[in-house]
Amino acid sequence: MNNTTATTTPPSLWVLCLCAEWCGTCREYQPLFNQLAADMPQARFVWVDVEAHDDLLQDLDIENFPTLLITDALQQARFAGTVLPHLETLQRLCKAALAGDLPLVTNEEWLAVVPGLLAAVAHGNSAASKH
What we know:
- By secondary structure, the protein is α/β, with parallel strands linked by helices.
- It has helices spanning about 25-40, 85-100, 110-120; strands at about 1-5, 15-20, 45-50, 65-70, 75-80, 130.
- Strands 1, 2, 3, 4, 5 and 6 form a six-stranded mixed beta sheet that branches.
- Strand 2, helix 1 (about 25-40) and strand 3 (about 45-50) form a beta-alpha-beta unit.
- The longest helix has 16 residues, at about 25-40.
- The termini are close together.
């Protein structure tokens, strides 16, 4: 995992991109993800390789890329799913989440993995690449 925004201030938003190293779409998307991370210091952006860290995903099966998990400051999941690999899409989702305009995720499989993923990232687990 790569964390692109390393700060000591708790983030108002967590944005996790669940991808695979072998995925060409993910490789093309990562610079856009990193760009938005630089533009949104109030959020913590994390790149998660689903194959290297499948233990954190439990029974969740990620089949399409890129897949995003966005949580609010209270670590409540606000978006979980596949998106088109466009910067504008990610920007809109992040702005909507920050404004509180996204409903809570209710899918049980996603809700089961959120605490473990965020704990691994928050505690500097080498399983994440933070931006």
